[in-house]
Write a structure and sequence with these properties.
By secondary structure, this protein is α/β, with parallel strands linked by helices. Helix content is 32%, strand content 24%. The strands form five sheets. The protein has a nine-stranded mixed β-sheet. The protein has a four-stranded antiparallel β-sheet with strand order 10-11-12-15. β8 and β9 form a beta hairpin. α2 packs across α3, α8 runs parallel beside α9 and α10 packs antiparallel against α11.
Length: 433
């Protein structure tokens, strides 16, 4: 094992627990969580009674499949506080989603919830190579979004010196990195690339900064994007996973010494994979929809939450806790173009394989007559010749046709013209309605 892995296991022996030990702990916590949800949240009691199941039916981990799923629609119907299991006097913080596709989903936390969350994010930073003596630059947005405060509290728990920059103000971000010299940054991968561009625009080499590790989450990103970030900054880039409905960032994290998928912290969460069409449980190694149960939450218990992320469970490597394959797609990200299922990540992978093109792109869906059509805006790198960019555009269109099975209008735009993300990247614009 590597030095980081050894130090993490020494600090938290549960990371090396046997499968039997992990599953025994999960079953004990799961029985509590299901009973707690049933007794304290009417939505769960009504769902379970309607499905003819009871917490007493939970005798083995496999029995969880008998219980109904929790969905985002359940949270929206419970807006704002009907999912809370404790009186408001015990809720110390409230977060919420942006609500761009409907009512926002609201999440509450007790002090105990916040403490566990901070400990789990601290674990994520540690397995990423972070140490108490490091300075950590937080470029996730603060506020109702869980990213900023989640990263902040976890970094403080580990003992880091936190730079609470938040999102936006790109020029100031660059200056703070130059002046404060942080070793770690927590930020969306798309905004990390925007920061790389900002260094270049100032005539600076991003490889010369103090940064050693970037911890990226909040949006899907490909292996090609990881390579781009690591090349431009000369750092290690690792994946952190989370979602506000479950907690926020910190549900899982890659180990910096393996970079082979995020380890799920199975002492706090129970993962499942289900068939996205039939919702039947799938064995480890098979791809499907990621379903998660929180095993500790007091303010707002979450049982069998359908994340809509597509992945598969894999054995642990750095730690005994299982990993999941990198999430490049979500069921609700899928575009259907003339009968073909298309994910933005498939197009991103093709673009990032072209050295003449920058990693910035935007997909537009529109109607051509009565048929759906798709265009892809890309940028040439400043140092790329017009001939190289033109050939790359042609190649991208050809690869999209050959690999995905659709025709796309690929157009090159001037460097810097595609909008840069200040947080989560907007990759798809749908003009069909």
């Amino acid at each position: 094992m590597g030095k980081v892995i050894d130090e993490c296991v020494a600090a938290e022996p549960v990371l090396a627990a046997s499968r039997d030990e992990i599953e025994a702990l999960q079953l004990k916590k799961l029985k509590w969580a299901v009973r707690y949800a049933y007794d304290n949240v009417p939505m769960y009691k009504n769902k379970y009674d309607g499905a003819g199941v009871h917490p007493d039916d939970l005798k083995h981990l496999d029995d969880l499949a008998k219980f109904p799923f929790t969905t985002k629609e359940d949270l929206r119907k419970s807006y704002p506080f009907d999912m809370f299991a404790v009186p408001m006097k015990d809720v110390v913080r409230i977060h919420a989603s942006s609500g761009t596709t409907g009512k926002p989903t609201v999440v509450g936390y007790t002090k105990g919830d916040i403490d566990i969350w901070a400990n789990l994010v601290a674990r994520c930073i540690r397995v990423s190579g972070g140490k108490a003596e490091h300075k950590l630059h937080v470029a996730y947005g603060y506020g109702l979004f869980t990213g900023g405060l989640g990263a902040h509290y976890g970094a403080e728990k580990l003992g880091c010196s936190v730079i609470p920059m938040s999102g936006g103000q790109t020029e100031k971000q660059v200056q703070m990195i130059l002046d404060f010299k942080p070793e770690i940054i927590m930020v969306t991968p798309s905004y990390m690339l925007a920061l790389a561009d900002a260094f270049t625009q100032r005539g600076l080499d991003a490889r010369d900064t103090s940064l050693q590790v970037a911890i990226h989450g909040a949006e899907p990103w490909s292996e090609e994007m990881r390579q781009e970030i690591e090349r431009r900054f000369d750092i290690d880039a690792v994946d952190i996973y989370g979602l506000s409905e479950l907690m926020g960032p910190g549900v899982a994290n890659e180990c910096v010494e393996t970079k082979d998928g995020a380890h799920i912290w199975e002492d706090a969460f129970l993962p499942e994979i289900v068939d996205p069409d039939t919702f039947a449980p799938l064995a480890d190694g098979l791809s499907g929809e990621f379903v998660l149960t929180a095993l500790f939450k007091q303010a707002m218990p979450i049982i069998r939450y359908r994340t809509k992320d597509l992945t598969r469970l894999l054995p642990g490597t750095a730690f005994t806790h299982r990993r999941f394959e990198r999430i490049n797609a979500r069921t609700d990200d899928m575009m259907i173009i003339r009968g073909v299922n298309v994910f933005p990540s498939q197009i991103e992978e093709i673009i990032l394989q072209e050295p003449a093109l920058s990693p910035h792109y935007q997909i537009t869906l529109f109607k051509k007559g009565r048929m759906d059509a798709i265009s892809v805006a890309v940028e040439g790198r400043k140092q790329s010749s017009d001939v190289a960019v033109s050939q790359a555009v042609k190649d991208v269109g050809g690869h999209i046709k050959a690999r995905i099975g659709i025709s796309a209008l690929v157009e090159a735009q001037a460097p810097g013209s595609i909008p840069r993300s200040q947080g989560k990247a907007v990759r798809v614009i749908d003009k069909r309605v």
